[in-house]
Amino acid sequence: MKMHDKCEVCGQPMEMEVGFYYGSGYVSYALSVALSVATFIAWWVLIGFSLDDNRIFYWLIANGVALGLLQPVLMRLARAGWLAIFVRYNKNWKERPAEKAERMIKEWQNGW
């Protein structure tokens, strides 16, 4: 599914420059690690780990399935977070529309 070129409400361009969202991979990685740590702690508290059985492997499988199923959600959150880092909220967005992206080359867009 293709992302919108600009926000439908305020007109903010979603692509600041070619390859802008490559950095969202770092945010996605941080979200995945945070989710893995949270599920590890929850598993440890609720079920526990032992050297005598394979409960750690059950957690690894459950965590892998959860990360796989939540990947679309994590990527959208990562892209929104990455955009929020670089685009400041303008409380007067109705009076002052968003600036046009200055470093966009249409021929290079969606070329990856």
Automatic annotation (TrEMBL):
Per UniProt, the keywords (alphabetical) are: Membrane, Transmembrane, Transmembrane helix
Q: Where are the transmembrane segments?
A: 20-44, 56-78
Q: What is this protein called?
A: DUF983 domain-containing protein
Instruction: Please give the organism.
Output: Polluticaenibacter yanchengensis
Q: What is the lineage of its organism?
A: Bacteria, Pseudomonadati, Bacteroidota, Chitinophagia, Chitinophagales
